[in-house]
C-alpha cells in the first residue's frame, strides 16, 4: 500500500510539472486546478487544509452576498436558493479534489453546518410540523371523555352481580 501512495504522489507531482511549473504539493493536472494550486503556493508554508479554508472563505463571501440579495422569507424557498447552494457545494468539492483533499471533510461539514444555522434554521419542515390545534384538541379530549364512560360501564357491570348485562 505504501508503494501505491508513493506512486500516486509522484504521478500527481509529474502532472503538475507538465503545466510548466513545479508545485509544492500534489495537484490535479487541470488548468483550473493548477490555478487553484498556484494560489495556495503563493501562501508558502501553509498546509493544503489552510489553503482550502482560505479559498472557501472567498467563495463563502460570494454565497453570503447571494443569500443577502434575497428576502429572508425566500431563504426557505428551495427554488430560490438551490442554485446558490448547489454552486457552493460543487465549488467545495472541486477545490477539495484539486488539492487532493477528500470531500466531504471536516472543514466542508463545518461550513455547511454554519450555513444551515445562519440561513435555514427557522425554515419549517413538513415532516415534523405539529398538527393543527383542532386535531390536537380532539386527540387529547377523546380519551379524557372516554374514561368516565368506561368507569360507569364497569360499575354497572359489577352492580349487576351475575356478570351479564
From TrEMBL:
The keyword Disulfide bond applies. Its main location: membrane. GO terms for biological process: angiogenesis; calcium ion transport; cellular response to hormone stimulus; G protein-coupled receptor signaling pathway; intracellular protein transport; protein localization to plasma membrane; receptor internalization; regulation of G protein-coupled receptor signaling pathway. Pfam families: RAMP. It is found in: Cell membrane. GO terms for cellular component: cell surface; plasma membrane; receptor complex. It comes from the Eukaryota. The chain crosses the membrane at residues 135-156. It is a single-pass type I membrane protein. Keywords: Cell membrane, Disulfide bond, Membrane, Receptor, Signal, Transmembrane, Transmembrane helix, Transport. Gene3D superfamilies: Receptor activity modifying family. Residues 1-20 form the signal peptide. InterPro entries: RAMP, RAMP_sf. GO terms for molecular function: coreceptor activity. PANTHER family: RAMP2 PROTEIN, RECEPTOR ACTIVITY MODIFYING PROTEIN RAMP. Belongs to the RAMP family. This is Receptor (G protein-coupled) activity modifying protein 2.
